[in-house]
Amino acid sequence: MSEKNRILLVDDDRDLLRLLSMRLAGRGYETVVAESGEEALAQVELARPQAVITDLRMEGMDGMVLADCIHRKNPALPVIILTAHGSIPDAVHATKNGVFAFLTKPFNSRELLAQVEKALQISGTHYASEKEPTESWREEIITRSSLMEDLLSQARLVAESDASICLRGDSGTGKELLAKAIHKASSRNEQPFIAVNCAAIPELLLESELFGHAKGAFTGATRDYPGLFQAAHGGTLFLDEIGDMPFSLQVKLLRALQEQQVRPVGSTSTVMVDVRIISATHRDLDAEVRDGNFREDLYYRLNVVVLEIPPLAERREDILPLASHFLSTIGNGIKKNVRGFSGEAIELLVSAPWPGNVRQLHNVVEQTVALSTTPIISAKLVKKALRQQSGQFPSFAEARRQFEQEYLAGLLKITNGNVTQAARLAQRNRTDFYKLLQRHNLDPSAFKPVKRQ
């Protein structure tokens, strides 16, 4: 059975474990059982399940403590809690602490299976594990996507040759990360990997940056500069955004690739270079060639092997593993105790369009970590970050709600929580004003000045 379908069941009632195993096995899931929270934690490491179903009340470690321990190390692993002692406060507490679902006993089999299926669809659970030495070349690429695995298989094959590779994909999909992985998998891995963004450097400087310059070649050239081709000698030169390279410079690049030598700006001599070229672009190079913006001969020189990186929206199973990885690295970097995302926040992350791909996801996680005041990131923070990252305006209804809430809170601050005065300033009767406060969950007493003892 595939690891993608493995469920860990935790309960101190053996009969219930047997019943759950039968229900899940009937739907094609593999089950692993544990009769205590302590045993379950060991099974999480050994069995690497894709979801956990646990009882709430157990001897020793209960279900909530178990869920908390799991999420400290695996924040994206969905936990479903079953209990005969269910209540609304328990459910609210559980979901606020990152529990995926909270179901009461006797459970409805159809509802439970639906929750399991939903958890597996959006979880994309990824476990950090020690790579085999032969897999170390790709250790920085976090993925559970079959599309990405196919791409990495192709990358591993072409890495063994010296053929030029062109990486195509939208901005933010991780083209430089893949280029580094290809370099690590190649026989050039002990030599330099040099990256340059062709769109970020002005044309006059880009030629000098790539090919070098001689002392006195232009104003400010106070010394000889070897350039990036020479710096990458024996290794790999990654030319990012090659589609933005100026047309006049494309001729010189083609000559350098054909002759395997460069001539620094202002110099009369050439230097031999041995460089493997990996280029990348988010542009449609075929269209650029047809429109006369990109040289056809250079296009064929660079496009010996083409690898397409799928956008994040086409590999949604990678969203949660990536988000969890970013959460861990960002949280550790600023020493902030943020352990995971709420269930609603996870759904927002997985269903978002991600026009900015992995780069946008990183920015969203970074923003939510910075603004979060609780260990579990809320859906509200994720929604705000997504809107700001994509440049979207809030809907009219959302903007109106936000204005009303801020307006009412401002009135209560001015009047120190005096509803009568606040209603008078707002030119509303007291009853209507109270209804507005209730709609926005504003408590007037919270705005009254604190009495000193």
Description:
There is one protein chain. The chain is of the alpha/beta class and 453 residues long. It has four domains: 3-123, 3-Layer(aba) Sandwich (Rossmann fold); 146-308, Rossmann fold; 315-390, Helicase, Ruva Protein, domain 3, CATH 1.10.8.60; 396-447. The chain is built from 19 helices and 14 strands. The protein has helices at 14-26, 37-47, 63-73, 88-96, 109-123, 146-159, 175-185, 203-211, 228-231, 247-259, 285-290, 296-302, 319-333, 343-351, 357-371, 379-390, 396-414, 419-426, 430-439, and strands at residues 6-10, 30-34, 51-55, 79-83, 101-104, 165-168, 193-197, 236-240, 261-262, 271-272, 276-281, 305-308, 340-341, 376-377. A five-stranded parallel β-sheet has the order 2-1-3-4-5, sandwiched between helices. Helix 1 (14-26) links the parallel strand 1 and strand 2. Helix 2 (37-47) packs parallel to helix 3, helix 6 crosses helix 7 and helix 14 packs parallel to helix 16 (379-390). Mean pLDDT is 85; it is low at 125-133. Residues 141-370 form the Sigma-54 factor interaction domain. GO terms for molecular function: ATP binding; DNA binding. It holds the Pfam family Response_reg.
